[in-house]
Amino acid sequence: MKGWMEGIQESIDFIENNLTEELDIEEIAGKAFLSSFYYQRIFGALCGMTVGEYIRARRMTMAAQELACSDRKVIDIAVKYGYDSPDSFTKAFQRFHGVTPTQARESGARLRSFAPLHIKITLEGGNMLDYRIVEKAPFTVVGMKKRFDAETSYREVPKFWDEWMLDRKGLKGMFGICTDMDGKNFDYWIADLYLPWEDIPEGCCTYQIPGGLWALFLCKGPLSDSMQKVNTQIWSEWLPSLQGYTLAGDYSLEFYPMPAENPDDTVSYIGIPLKKL
Length: 277
Description:
Layout: H1 4-17, H2 25-31, H3 36-47, H4 51-69, H5 74-80, H6 86-97, H7 101-104, E1 131-136, E2 139-149, H8 153-166, E3 175-179, E4 185-193, E5 205-209, E6 212-220, H9 223-238, E7 245-247, E8 252-255, E9 267-276
Antiparallel strand pairs: 1-6, 2-4, 2-5, 3-4, 3-8, 6-9, 7-9, 8-9
Helix pairs in contact: 1-2, 2-3, 3-9
């Protein structure tokens, strides 16, 4: 994908140039020529934090610098960096720096600084990533869905699985599916293949996954560790070198076959929709 890394860096530069403005995830993602759905997943894999966390860290860094070297009012600096009140600004500032804005002006105050990101991929040796590109017909799933905020989904989706374990509603939990991303939120499904001759369990509904090309990535080993490792490789290693294809659709899936007796032998898959260039 020629220019892919340049696009990610351009989006980060856009954030840096607009830290005192209202930032929209759709506009940020557009600088990288990606949907907000994929942009946020790629950003998290590459940078180890969400887009929102990065913006907050940079704003807190800049706010601290202004407090330390100017006599501007706290409320003016708070408003400049997107906070409606001194209280909300003070709480956020103290969480980040460990001191209040007033204390930040004292001589010798210890403040944290988060530097702007610069994306650079360094190849330090080959890592094996098993995948295949297949064409699949449309298929329908049945399951439970819940709306999540992209900022907190890494913590909240596992809790959703824990809740499902208490009342499986007749589901096997074959799939974990992200759909209907709107920039900030998305639906996450715990689902099975839909069989028309079977009743839809109470509290569940159906969803049709469009047909098309998919890249299917093999994950082997304990679920959380293996899927997280492969997910990071997909966005940081596989995607930058992808040729002849581009990402398609604002959805993705995880496929969980029956667990193995030995967790190290557990096999699962991550599916990413593609289209030919």
